[in-house]
């Protein structure tokens, strides 16, 4: 996969299934909206399982550019630490730079330190191949729109279901600054279409539809490592 800190690669199918089942016979849904597309795992799974049109967005230009449509084909070769450092120094906003920033970094944290090719394993090449699989799924549906901006600026069509995976409270947030959770809650509750949110916790009147325990990312593998419970909530107004 394109390793992406906070990504849902291992949970995507469960999340999409839970949302699909919770929607049930909700009428007229034909578009999947993700204001925080990140590593693209849930969007790709939604495209594969549901076939809905996609409206994807991220405030991080390097995350957004990963899913914008163009003719880019990655060169699947081992990446060295010197090459990683050189790409970072240039500071481009393009697919290759994005793949290096996330796919060649420890734990998928953007420019979080070079993930070495231990024992000859082509870490970067594997990330590129996985990105390509997700990219192809995302662009397999009739319409895919990808933007870069604040979640509040995303155009939510009337036929949409919205899935949000925002920066979790009490964890490492976006590089663009602190995330205003209170403002985000208000935005979610102002929508007129079904909205689902991944978080550890939520307002008491939101409805939990799914949960899964996992080990906290970037924690050492130890018996006393921190366990967390990922949840998906259906948004309800007060």
Write the layout of secondary structure elements.
Elements: H1 12-23, E1 31-34, H2 41-50, E2 53-58, H3 61-65, H4 81-90, H5 95-103, H6 123-138, E3 144-148, E4 160-164, H7 181-190, E5 195-199, E6 207-215, E7 227-234
Parallel strand pairs: 1-2, 1-4, 2-3, 4-5
Antiparallel strand pairs: 5-7, 6-7
Helix pairs in contact: 1-2, 2-6
**How would you state the average pLDDT, rounded?**
89
* N-to-C SSE string, H for helix and E for strand: HEHEHHHHEEHEEE
Q: What's the gyration radius in Å?
A: 18 Å
Q: Number of helix segments? A: 7
Q: What can you tell me about this protein's structure?
A:
This protein is α/β, with parallel strands linked by helices and 238 residues long. Helix content is 30%, strand content 18%. It contains seven helices and seven strands; from the N terminus they run αβαβααααββαβββ. It has a seven-stranded mixed β-sheet with strand order 3-2-1-4-5-7-6. β1 (31-34), α2 and β2 (53-58) form a beta-alpha-beta unit. α1 crosses α2 and α2 (41-50) crosses α6 (123-138). The protein is globular and about 55 Å long. The N and C termini lie far apart (39 Å).
Features:
18% strand; 238 residues; alpha/beta; 7 helices
Describe the structure concisely.
By secondary structure, the protein is α/β, with parallel strands linked by helices. The chain has helices at 12-23, 41-50, 61-65, 81-90, 95-103, 123-138, 181-190; strands at residues 31-34, 53-58, 144-148, 160-164, 195-199, 207-215, 227-234.
């Amino acid at each position: 996969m394109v390793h992406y800190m906070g990504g849902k690669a291992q949970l995507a199918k469960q999340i999409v299934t839970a949302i699909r089942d919770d929607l049930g016979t909700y009428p007229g849904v034909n578009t999947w909206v993700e204001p925080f597309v990140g590593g693209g795992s849930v969007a790709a799974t939604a495209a594969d399982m549901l076939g809905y049109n996609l409206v994807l967005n991220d405030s991080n230009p390097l995350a957004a550019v990963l899913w914008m449509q163009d003719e880019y084909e990655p060169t699947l070769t081992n990446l060295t630490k010197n090459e990683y450092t050189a790409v970072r120094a240039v500071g481009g906003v393009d697919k290759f730079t994005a793949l290096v920033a996330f796919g060649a970094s420890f734990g998928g944290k953007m420019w979080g330190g070079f993930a070495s090719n231990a024992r000859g394993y082509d870490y970067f090449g594997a990330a590129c191949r996985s990105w390509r699989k997700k990219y192809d799924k995302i662009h397999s549906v009739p319409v895919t729109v990808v933007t870069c901006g604040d979640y509040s600026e995303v155009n939510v069509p009337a036929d949409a279901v919205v899935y949000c995976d925002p920066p979790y409270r009490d964890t490492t947030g976006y590089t663009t600054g602190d995330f205003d959770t209170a403002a985000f809650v208000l935005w979610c509750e102002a929508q007129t279409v079904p909205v689902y949110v991944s978080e550890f916790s939520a307002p008491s009147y939101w409805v939990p539809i799914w949960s899964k325990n996992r080990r906290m990312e970037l924690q050492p593998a130890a018996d006393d490592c921190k366990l967390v419970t990922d949840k998906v909530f259906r948004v309800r107004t007060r």
